[in-house]
Amino acid sequence: xxxxxxxxxxxxxxxxxxxAEGIYSNLAIITHSPAEFIIDFTRVVPGVPKAxxxxxxxxxxxxxxxxxxxxxxxxxxxxxxxxxxxxxxxxQQHFGFVGPNKxxxxx
Length: 107
What we know:
With 107 residues, the protein is of the alpha+beta class. The protein has a domain at 23-83. The protein is built from three helices and four strands, in the order ααβββαβ. The chain has helices at residues 3-7, 17-21, 61-82, and strands spanning 27-32, 37-42, 53-59, 96-98. It has a four-stranded mixed sheet. A hairpin with a 4-residue loop joins β1 and β2 (37-42). The longest helix has 22 residues, at 61-82. The protein is globular. The model has no long low-confidence stretch (mean pLDDT 86).
């Protein structure tokens, strides 16, 4: 296979019924080591002091950066079509996505 063929290679992605339903998450906790990024997706409900992790994604630092760029590209496309996504910054509110220091929400 030459370079041109390998660049145009298609990947068939299988999506099972259970995964197609998706999982709602309003909180992600992101931790990392030199070798990997771990993203735990959870759901926080007001008044409930406990949250369960519904999905954990473990990936390489390179793939985490590629994911960040893909998300930014898609956010830009979304905002150009539907308008700016507003994010309220409430320092005491821990609903949303947080980094390794869980007391500091990601802005």
